[in-house]
Amino acid sequence: MRNFVIILSFIVAGIISAVMIGFDMEGIASDTYYDDEQEGLQEQIIIRFSHVAAENTPKGRTATKFAALLEDKTNGKVKVHIFPNAILYNDANEWKAVQNGSVEMIAPATAKISEHYPIWQILDLPFAFPNYRAVEAAYEGKIGKALLEGLEHTNVKGLDLWYNGFKQITTQESVIRTPDDFSRLHFRTMPGAVIQEQFNQLNASTSILPFNKTYQNLKVDFVDGQENTLSNINTKKFYEHQQYLTISNHGYLGYGVLMNRDFWNGLSSQVQESINEAMHEATAWGRRHAIEINDQHARAIRSNQSLEIYTLSAEERAQWRKALRPVYNEAEQTVGSDLMEEIETIKENYAH
Ligand code: SIN
Q: Hey, how many other C-beta atoms are within 10 angstroms of the C-beta on 253?
C-alpha cells in the first residue's frame, strides 16, 4: 500500500509539472530571446558599396574603415559589403546602379559627378589647391557644403567628400615638362567639362574611358598617357605601359560619397545617425591617412624603377598655371562667381 501511494504521488506530480511547463503557452509567447549569432535576416541591413579603386588606396582603405565603424556602432545590425576594383560596376554604369538601387552606395571621383551635376567641376580646376590644407578647406568648408546640399532634391544623398591626392601625368613616348609637350598627344581622362577643357588648352586630345579600361588602353597604345594619383598609378600598374611620370600636382582627385536616396529615406533615424557618425569619423581617418598612403605608393614606384620621374620646376609650374588659366573662365559660367571667389580666397589663404 505504501509503495502504491509513493508511485501515485510521482504520477500526480508529473502531471502537474507537465501542465505548468508544457502547456503554459502564454509564458512562452510573451518572451523574445536575443541571439547575437542568429539575428533575424530582416533585422540585418546590408549596404552594397561599389567602387572602382583598389583596396589599398585612400578610397579603398577609407571604405573599409567606414564599414568597420558602422558595424561597430550598430552592434552588427548594419553591414557594408564593399565591391572594389569595379568588380560589380565601373564608371560607366555605377551611377545607374546607385540610382536604381542595384547598389546602395558609390564614391565616384568628383569629375565623374560633374558629368551629372556640373557645379562639381569646381573641385577639378587645375592648380586650385596649393596644398592639402587648401583641399581640406574646400572639402569641409563652404564649397563642400554647397556641393553636398546641392544634391538634396536629387535621388542620391551626398554623404561626404573623401580624399585621395594630387594628380600626376604619365606618358609613354616622351616626358612632359612644359605645356607645349602635351601638344598632339592623346590622353585617357575622366569625364567632366573642366578636365576636357584642361587638355584642350594644352592642345592634347582625349578619350573618356572608365578607370578599369585604362590599363588595357595604355597597353595597346590607344592613348599616350593619363593623369592620376600615385596610389592609382601604382595599384593599377600603369607603369607597365608608361615610361615617364611627371610630378606636377596640377589637380586634386577626391570623391563624393553617395547613397541611394530611397534607401536612405527608408532607414530609421537611429541608423541614419549611425551612418552619419561613421561617415564623419571615416572621412577624418581618410584625411589623416591619404597623404601617407600615396607616399607609400610613391616609394613603391621609385623602388621598382619602371618609370622615369621628372618633377616640374617652379618656372615650369608657372607656365602650366598660365596656360591653364582660361579653364577658369569656362568654369565660372557653370559654377557661378560665388564659389569661384571662394576658390580664389582659399588659394590666397593657403599659398604659403
Ligand atoms: C578613382 O580613383 O576612383 C578612379 C580615378 C580615375 O578614374 O582615374
A: 23
